[in-house]
Amino acid sequence: MSEKDQVGFENLLNEIRTFPPKPEFTKDAVVKDRSIYERAASDPVAYWETEARELDWFEPWTRTLEWDPPHVKWFDGGKINVAYNCLDRHLAGPRRNKAAIIWEAENGRRRTYTYGQLDREVRQFGNCLKGLGVGKGDRVAIYMPMLPEAAIAMLACARIGAIHSVVFGGFSPDSLADRINDARCRVLITADGGWRRGQVIALKHNADRALEKCPSIEHVVIVNNIPGEHQLLHFMEGRDHWYHRLMDHQSADCPAEPMDAEDPLYILYTSGTTGQPKGIVHTTGGYAVGAYSTTKYVFDLKESDIFWCTADVGWVTGHSYIVYGPLMNGATVLMYEGAPNYPDKDRFWEMVENHHVTVFYTAPTAIRAFMKWGDEYPAKHDLSSLRLLGSVGEPINPEAWMWYHEHIGAKRCPIVDTWWQTETGSIMISALPGVSTLKPGFAGEPLPGVLATILDEAGNEIKTGSGLLAITHPWPSMLRTIWGDDQRYVDIYFSKWDKKTYFPGDGAKRDENGNIMILGRVDDVLNVSGHRIGTMEVESALVDHPAVAEAAVVGRKHDLKGQAIVAFVTLKANQRMSSALLDELKAHVVEKIGALARPEEILFSGDLPKTRSGKIMRRLLRDIAEGRALGDVTTLADPNVVEALREDYEERYGG
Ligand code: PRX
After folding, report:
1. SS3 for 211-246, per residue?
2. Between 3.30.300.30, 3.40.30.10, 3.30.565.10, 3.30.70.1400, what CATH number should domain 525-653 receive?
3. Model confidence over 313-328: pLDDT tens digits?
4. Which atom of ligand 1 is nearest to the CA of 504?
5. pTM higher than 0.90, yes or no?
6. Whose C-alpha lies nearest to ligand 1, atom 15?
7. Which residues are near ligand 1 (CB < 6 Å)?
């Protein structure tokens, strides 16, 4: 940002209105005053212990926190089962017949599971998995559309002590195979297909392509989501099983496995700064406490709420705020399989109206799309059931915040802008809607029990102003390691300052009231439409193409997506650039990773700007992609390269 832009930005921030909590909201809020912050600050470990006591434990823990930096154990010695906490414990009272999951597909199909029904289905499916040889500690891959069976599969794994690894259904066969192989999953649960804008996404077909490279998979369970069973191109006898056939006459007698608090609950892969995604490991007890407690406080959950988180179960948001957090709280969740603009651009608002959604949680990229589509779409519907709105996944720009506030929240609903990560397991920085003054663009204060601050490179605390976000004390739902690579856990997250301080990889800024604004990633990780993608992953996919010699990938600001992927590519000597090759390269990235990684722009270049020691200077490429004045070029091996690149880029993409 230039100095002039910076000053303009500061002025804009100072002009931003703030929104104190409304007395009519606070009156009935779960958190009505700030005493919770003081209690947590005086003893964070005791605070989390109090939260943990609200869950059902088979055996109490012996030590609340064991901290051997950078490794931690929470609630060690305790025995707990997360599925039991999501289901069994609600069955004794009126929640037995309360809706747990209300599901709707884009073609209007609907299914509702009460807590009693969901419990039975989870037990039965737990037995199906056992019948396929799955036991405690085994890894199970889940590659599913947004079906109730995705949640059932996760809960069934949790019930029998298997570790699930959910892979977003938009990932390519190669990405699925990499993830299955890294965790050596024994079983894959998938569906014949998913629906998106009236089209079938051929999930089983993709899974079959992945499985050609996955020797560890012994069985595949397929949910029938497309009418008829004929969609399968390939059904391997002995390996492949229809979900409904396995479930037929299956016993519902499936006791919940008493898990050690520190036993892994799941692995979820996320992008980092290398080409290889990281398997983030979450354990049972601490994760349960974090997901449960934050859902209750941040979303101000009431017995009568209809909670809709629009994320996909393939991402951590779906894990914590569609499945585990709300169900541990006994809430009713809405699950939707489909696109927000199908059959029309008011689909979400139609759903809010029809299901009387009270709490709505989505991503800024979606909000910006709604803004672009026009105010008339939400205006067509009665959204008066809404009482609280949430945002997650990327910084929300104040304009989008204000639109959300006015057009969805009718200036009535508080907005919680929740900062967290796959690694943190649950929300870390957010307003508490009954007590916080909201400031558009700012996530707010760290939640009670979370010690987040801002440090400079040397580790000095920055009270007001910008620097690097840091977390200085363990929290229960933090990742415990990276699957199969503990050293990488230490290096990435606990080596920036000291072994006690977690480095999330985000820049942040704090105002004089202690509100934190997240400024975005400071590493080579992009955030495209709220999805995390490593620049190295895209570069590896590009150089995998036979025509490509070298590639450098950067992000540039994008009105809707937040960031867009820009690739600079050098071809091998015998290759000619052409628009056909450009399309082919984009398709190749989709083929290797998935549609979410498709480059927005590719520029062919004779050379890339490098230092004299041969390191590509991505900073300069970012300057080019964002049309900024070039930064320091004195260390370049050949300064002419950047000027030529900039001219080409401006000619092709308008700078
Ligand atoms: O850069 C931050 C951004 O998303 C990253 C985490 O991505 P992921 O692990 O995929 O989890 C996304 C959903 C929790 C963070 O490092 N991010 C997440 N929430 C926010 C955010 N940036 C700004 N504001 C947020 N509320």
Report:
1. HCCCCCCCEEEEECCCCCCCCCCCCCCCCEEEHHHH
2. 3.30.300.30
3. 999 999 999 999 999 9
4. 16
5. yes
6. 421
7. 270, 316-317, 392-395, 417-422, 443, 504-506, 518, 520-521, 527, 532
